[in-house]
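<tokenise_the_fold>
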Amino acid sequence: MKYRPMLRIALVLAAALPAWAAQPVHARHGMVVTVEPHATDVGLKVLESGGNAVDAAVAVGFALAVTHPSAGNLGGGGFMLVRMADGTTTFLDFRERAPGAASRNMYIGPDGRPTRDSIEGYRASGVPGTVRGLEQAWRQFGTKKWADLVQPAQELAAKGYALSYTEATSMRNAARGRNGAKGLSDFPASNRIFLRDGKYYEPGDTFVQADLGRTLGRIARLGAKDFYEGETAALLAKDMKENGGLITLEDLKSYRVIERKPLTGKYRGYDLITAPPPSSGGVGILQMLAVLEGTGFEKAGAGSAAAVHYIAEAMRHFFADRSQDLGDPDFVKVPMAGLLSPEHILQIRASIDPERATPSSQVKPAVFVAHESEETTHYSIADEKGNLVSVTYTLNGGYGSKVTAEGLGFLLNNEMDDFAPKPGDANMYGLVQGEMNAIQPGKTPLSSMTPTIVLRDGKPYLVLGSPGGPTIVNTVLEVLLNVLDWKMNVQDAVNWPRFHMQWLPDELRMEPGYSPDTIALLEKRGYTVKPEAAQGQCAAIQISNGWLEGAADPRSGGKAAGY
């Protein structure tokens, strides 16, 4: 996603303005925070009409597939973390899965090097999970009629809506790839729908998606069965077969959502509920918070060189662990007890030099660091009964594989690139990947998506998440620390400038907003500091003193709304 210069200025100002200048949206009954205003409005109307947070989450998921096509999706997958008012919690894993015809070396070319097939075109797609995931959430917790939750998205697609500057520019920028990569213009249906065959959409133009409207109409009438077994499934399988893709009708028919037990942990008396594997995010949050809790880092103050140093060191060690120890728990044994053991936490904490950065070459060697695009999206919802939903879902890359399914109107993911195309070798992004994340039929690729809920005294306190590939985990961590340690209001916590350390490459990436003195002190400690235009797009809700406080991220142009 492109970030305009004005946004960079806004990020710098966000750190300097007093707390009263960045207030969250306040409401008593319900709150929806998403990356796109139309989708926020859809979710809010569901809440206002008596639906619960899960109802709203389903409607928002479908709406974003229409109004935020670079990441919102029918042809991708994701995670939903639910905490109902009665204390029931669950984690729905509707990530994409490797097709039955997938094989370990399917993306290795004749020269022994990874090809681009895992990134663009029909062979890049895993079996989509979004539609079945949203339906399962509704079946377990929803209260409204299914058709009523899909209808707003159907109308937005069929009747159209006015494109924002951000969405119109995003589609134009995706027309052509860079450095030999393919873009939307290389695939007929994508070129026709999103680019008007080269007559690019302008901000304010009405964007109609007739094919997608018809697909959503069938899903509204017939449910997920249409997508996985009906007309939509047949058309998708036919398009795949005609263009060398791997997804078959049997792959679609056999797709199942996996309900998993959320990870839980504590930090300074707060209870955390977060994402289990195949997300790497939840274990990362719990490990990094445990390491930090015993250091006294918070005393140095938000934005100080000392605080950034301790947080960056915790990040460095987690990403080293992530490189070799995490994968799909249905295929590999994930050493959760070891990753979160007191002994391991103490070992990491003891290795941190208060005055010096630890060179990544001295930290446990990596086998794998997954690539995951920033073109994911997250939304957070709370209702008046105390139900909370945190959803992160994705096509992986911006506009996924760039392929729009012929006659169906939705983009397909390029999630197969989250696997290791060639275990042990660097992929085309320079990242070394290993055996835990090797391709196998039916396997789920490792993810960084980290939907998270926090309780205080057993009651809802915070719900949040972010897109951003590997930066997701660190973005969620930093917003948590801003609220829990430095007592920022949730909007200030989201606005605050961020930084990212992921072990390799050995560099500290920092948004605008940190003082030259802070950067100089970090460089003196041994960090290689690199500027970063923007990191993540957190959507957060805080529940405090009877108020729901919603914070959309100024990096995204999103919207928080409540009633």
